[in-house]
Fold these 2 entries.
Entry 1:
Amino acid sequence: MAESTVTAHIGSTNFQVLLDDGKHTWLADEPESKGGGDRGPDPVTLLMSSLGACTSITLKMYAQHKGWALADVRVAITMESGEQGATFDRRIVLEGDLSDEQRERLLQIANACPVHKILTNTISIRTGLTVA
């Protein structure tokens, strides 16, 4: 059963995609160098931003639940891809009055964010056509 649905619609504007989840709308696009209008992040950047957002939120929620003094979280994501697949490099900066043990636990918790779990497990994509 699907947790949520996101629709993607591309019209006459080259490579600009309107994304909609029923509550929010946002754009994806390609840079001008690839024929797009650069009006939004490209699809790979959106994927990386999902991992960064999920990591940040998961760490903040966990620290709040524990009553830890986590003041700020910054996550930088880069990705390399090739014939063998993709590797995400996630660098996390934690600010606040945290012990070494709390910092180590938060590093472990980062790997428990839902997007991290999705990306590190087997992924399959079922694709079908629907007549308009």
Entry 2:
Amino acid sequence: MKVMFKLSAVGLLVMLFVTTAYSYDHSMPLIIDHTCTELSLIPLEWIDSVQANWRLHYAHTSHGGQLTTGLNRLENADATYNIAIGSSHLPTVPDAFCIFDGQEGDTYITPDMYWQTTEGMNMTRDVLNHHPTINTSMWAWCCQLNYYSEEEVQAYLDSMAVLEREYPQVTFVYLTGNAQATGSEGYNRYLRNEQIRQYCIANNKVLFDFADLDSWWFNPDTQEWEHATYEHNGHTVSVEHQHFHGNEAGHTTYESCEQKGKAVWWMMARLTGWSGSQATIEGNSVGPQRFSLDQNYPNPFNPVTEVRYSLPRGCQVRLEVYNLLGQKVASLVEGKQKAGYKSVRWDGSRFAAGLYFYRLKAGDFTQTRRMILVK
């Protein structure tokens, strides 16, 4: 297995973008991946809003149990993230994020029991018809994408579109499959995951990128994200990071489960209306307590976007923009800056439409985010 220790050119090639708007309205894609796992960045009022206003229908087999295990562990560590998960029923617990786990009468939900057959789609319809307060529904893959064809995955996308038309008040979340397989099966899974990703981007869907969350691990010693890959017939393929190899829950480690649980909270906060941006520059009388780099706004953008970041102390700062090949295309900030909330604009009018990356290096702090230029 090959591990990339920094967000360099090869690592950037397999990354997608996280969209940010000050009110999520399904007018653009929402991609939830490893960059959506810093729980402390979500203001508590948005956690409260999720618990008060959002109800999730979640169907899955064993691998999908990583999400619910992670949510339970986060709650055990901090009661702020209170959840209530009901096996084949929807709990009604005040001040908790309530989740209907499974379908009516079963909790181990294979494709034929959610989207693949008429009977399965009717099972999904039954849950939504009998529990009208549910406003989000999602189903998690097991290992089907290791061998599913392009046509079979298209059938999944088509069935989800049917459900979306029938239940416009419900947000249906798409998922990629886990990244554990290697060899030819892992490459097939990579292709099918890419098929799902591109569909979600092109059609403004919500995607929970399970495979991305499998393959990235944050190293607390280097303060860098590490990306695990392997080579197959000349192709670089993402694979589950070796730090997540284990069988503590759902065929992985507790740490991997917690990473995915954090991403669920991030996703739900975004669906509730959180912009994904923490810093408030105007009228903020208290200086920043930590280094941070916000998601640019707007995103996608044409041709100008704003990047905000926070410096708890004065230091040397470099803020640069890179293309997909890891080549620097713009230097937005370079030099020493005082502590405070900062903002800089980037005009992409001279550049081709596509995916870009912006990287902040401030003292020992480094963070990279993604943005997309449309024309």
